[in-house]
Design goal:
36% helix; 12 helices; eight-stranded mixed β-sheet; four-stranded antiparallel β-sheet; alpha/beta
Length: 413
């Protein structure tokens, strides 16, 4: 008898693995009233990799949001009570909210490209297909390139819009954190508006070239769709665990603060700067644009923040007012249009110190004069899980701010 040996690629292993269940997981909201309480939550986030802090800042009277597995809940609540925290349970069973989300997506049958973007979260292959469709439909306007391959072999594609000599460049990326689905959705809506509604956006195309990478971390993005909804990191093995936090992996003050050396942590910095092919792809593309790129915008969620360097220290760069002017323009435009308020400031001063971020690196190493992280609105049962029904409102509101920031950059540079 001849034995057949079948080799299964690493990238396919997840297919036969059971989907992670969030049954019994709770999301707690915890108010920090004192500096001691804020420090306690920060230390807890750094020391316990089983707790997933969805929102955490240093601001007094702010409310942290934490995903807690069943086995940690008794100890977690005891620690809160011991330290005098006020808290509530936002979500009593996270698994039920995921079921509700899946049903809402399955019930829609979108038709046009814009409808697909506005009413459902596109999978990575669909994202790339849309980019290719635009390149075929508008060959004079756009160029689509595969700039790299992810660890599991997925193509990372950028779309370049209005590529003209002497234009200033805006580099926009999204999806470096896998679970933040609203970020790629917003990037796709930006692409849709810039290409398919170019006449309405002539003011931000006349002297600007846009380079957009809608999904930086496709392996994690797909894994969060298929297997583990709140997966954050990349998917390259790291010791006994998997994945690196891409936004702690850039080579500027790498690993100094707010980044973990534990491979199982949500904020694992990686075993070296740019250890991930996905972060190297961002580095290489922005480096090619050195001198031309005037605005780096990275889309994340959630929290309604417009953040800029530095992420490793509370000090501000000498030219922080130039960045602040652009960010304030975005915040003002959104508030005027919808009433939604954004907090503007440096990452460390508004949230917490986190070294190794892409915006710090772009500003310091690639000489991009304006580098901003846009933390988009959350929604649904827990901020990372906005239902499909809220996509349209969120991306259209966010586009108002992105347009305003781009206009300000066009005026300044």
């Amino acid at each position: 008898m001849i034995l057949k040996i079948i080799i299964v690629p690493f990238a396919m292993l997840a297919v036969v693995t059971a989907r992670h269940s969030y049954q019994g997981y709770k999301v707690y909201e915890v108010q920090q009233k004192t500096r001691e309480q804020a420090n306690f939550l920060y230390e807890l986030e750094q020391s316990n990799s089983n707790l997933d802090f969805w929102h955490l800042s240093k601001r007094l009277n702010d409310k942290a949001q934490v995903l807690v597995p069943p086995k940690e809940q008794r100890t977690f609540v005891a620690d809160l009570m011991k330290n005098g925290f006020q808290y509530s349970v936002l979500v009593h069973d996270v698994e039920n909210t995921i079921d509700d989300y899946s049903a809402s997506v399955a019930s829609r049958k979108p038709v046009s490209a814009e409808d697909r973007i506005l009413h459902g979260y596109l999978r990575h292959s669909d994202v790339n297909q849309y980019l290719d469709e635009l390149a075929s439909k508008f060959p004079a306007k756009v160029k689509v390139e595969q700039i790299a391959t992810s660890y599991e072999g997925r193509p990372l594609k950028t779309i370049t819009i209005n590529d003209k000599r002497n234009n200033s460049v805006i580099f926009l990326d999204a999806g470096i954190h896998a679970r933040e689905w609203i970020a790629p959705a917003t990037a796709l809506y930006a692409i849709n508006q810039l290409v398919e509604n170019a006449n309405e956006n002539a003011d931000i195309l006349s002297n600007l070239t846009w380079v957009i990478l809608p999904v930086v971390n496709p392996d994690g993005y797909e894994y969060s769709h298929q297997m583990e909804r709140f997966w954050r990191k990349t998917r390259k093995p790291a010791g006994k665990c998997i994945g690196t936090d891409g936004n702690r992996n850039f080579d500027f003050h790498w690993g100094e603060v707010g980044a973990s050396s534990s491979a199982c942590s949500e904020t694992y910095k990686g075993d070296a700067p740019f250890s991930e092919p996905e972060t190297r792809a961002v580095r290489d593309e922005i480096s090619k644009l050195k001198g031309q790129c005037k605005f780096y915008l990275s889309l994340h969620s959630y929290g309604n923040y417009l953040l800029y360097p530095w992420g490793y220290t509370s000090d501000l760069p000498d030219t922080w007012r130039d960045i602040d002017e652009v960010a304030q323009a975005g915040a003002a435009a959104i508030e005027q249009a919808t009433g939604t308020k954004y907090t503007v400031g440096s990452s460390t001063n508004e949230l917490y110190a986190a070294a190794g971020g892409s915006d710090d690196w772009a500003f310091a190493k690639a000489d991009v004069p304006v580098a901003i992280v846009m933390e988009l609105p959350g929604g649904g049962f827990g901020g990372f899980n906005p239902p499909a029904s809220s996509i349209e409102t969120s991306v259209k509101e966010s586009w108002v701010g992105i347009r305003a920031m781009a206009r300000k950059v066009a005026q300044k540079y």
